[in-house]
Amino acid sequence: MSQTVTCKRTWTLTSTGVGEGYQTHGLGRKHTWYIETIGSSRSTCNFEIQTARSTEGSTIARYVSLTYPYSTSPSTFALTSATLQVIQFEGPFLAVRPYVTAMGATGVSGSTGVHVVVTLIGN
What we know:
Helices cover about 0% and strands about 50% of the residues. The protein is an all-beta fold. It has a single domain, classed as Jelly Rolls (Sandwich), CATH 2.60.120. The strands form two sheets. Strands 2, 3, 5, 6, 7 and 9 form a six-stranded antiparallel sheet that branches. The chain is globular. The mean pLDDT is about 85.
């Protein structure tokens, strides 16, 4: 049985904060996130995956961080530079976005920092 890709989006984040919200319209049942850090080998990144009902306006778009089943706190993921992490969440979700909670060097002089490339594929 073949499956169809219902949503696909890539974000490139160069600082802490949130990526632009992406409206999936609840079409995908399974969402796979590829998160890759690129930059200095001594840089780190912490991030969360968030969801909301809509991406439109601050009165509607109230994002919350996703948690793994049986967890009571948001799932925060940590990466070092030049690493890839694959994360899967089951939906459906209406709107999603990545949220980088911390980014930067580990204190080594001359570090060039890091940026994060996040790709979402839903089916």
